[in-house]
Amino acid sequence: MRQLPQRGSVAIVGVAESDLGVVAPGLTPLDLMGQAIQRALDDCGLSLSDVDGVFSAASQLRMPTISLCEYLGVKPTYTDSSYLGGASFQSLAAHAALALEAGLCNVAVIAYGSTQRSARGTFVPQRDQNEYDSAARPRLPVTGYALAAARHMHLYKTTREDLADIALAARSWAQLNPVAFDRRPLTREDVLNAPMISSPLGAKDCCLVTDGGAAVVMVRADRARELAKPPVWLLGAGEAQEHHSITQMADLTSTGAARSGAQAYAVARLNPNDIDVAQVYDAFTITTLLFLEDLGFCPKGEGGRFVQDGGIAPGGRLPVNTSGGGLSYCHPGMFGLFTMVEATRQLRGECGDRQVAKADTAIAHGNGGVLAGQSTLILGTSAAL
């Protein structure tokens, strides 16, 4: 059985974003990682000389940890650049926790940076293709997610209006976030009448394309309480990889989040009803719906009804993607690390107008590929330990 981090053995003690949206000309992914790392270290009162564990994944760098360590001028005792697409960062957090538990490092930094918006036209990410799928000329990743959305609609009578409610909820949260990329008013009609990208997903069902980076600092429990900010404890972690090509997905409406979530809940000794705030990967509106179901917040097929009428918006039954998510806050190629940043800030009570009252537990879920890799973290305050 795969070894998982022990409940409460490590904590997140620092988080930060780099510059977001459209960054200054000439900035590179490494520059954005460096910005975010320095800000995250400042957040917890540590310095670059304290860092001896470096964890990173990137779509624009072949050897992200090696490049990042050279850029920072650090020589860590442990590094990891395991790549699962947008699910990489929750997985790297679990790896960092195991390395910290084993004494392989003492201060672990997880970082990501991308200039995806600035580099459009000059950067073309390589995509693994299934030779049997290629003949159909899918426009990936959106074609794969559109297949999942269409299947969910067929089986469970989910509607485009239900998906629109997810986009509206994300925008409502973004309007409370001063650094969100798109805070403009958005109506259901705007979502439904937006240009169709891959039926049934229109332009407003799809994530932003932005620049940006983020960083998270983790330490063992024995050090966490000594630092500048209240520690946010890693209570549980899980990971699942089900397929690569969307045509090899056994059930287009059921993802590996059901398995990764079950692992995380078991270690955390919690269940979905215990979670105060959820940050789930929302590259498309359908991903939010699928993950709410598979992580146990509502039964399979009930996601459409769960999100209706502001169910996940401010004041709804469950606060979801309170930063505005990939749909309205930022999405620089991969979004997984940003769910961890927002979850940490919510648990520390730092979110201002969008702060969720009495938030002691949070889930931060990452998704990689076309619903291919799933990784889940459950985080908590000291009250949840």
UniProtKB/TrEMBL annotation:
Q: InterPro entries, per this entry?
A: Thiolase, Thiolase-like, Thiolase_C_2
The record's listing under Pfam families reads: Thiolase_C_1
Family annotation (Gene3D superfamilies): 3.40.47.10
**NCBIfam families named in the record:** PRK06158.1
Instruction: Please identify the protein, giving its name as recorded.
Output: Thiolase
**Annotated ranges, domain Thiolase C-terminal:** 238-381
Q: Which organism is it from?
A: Nitratireductor aestuarii
MF terms per GO, please? acetyl-CoA C-acyltransferase activity
Q: Which residues form the signal peptide?
A: none
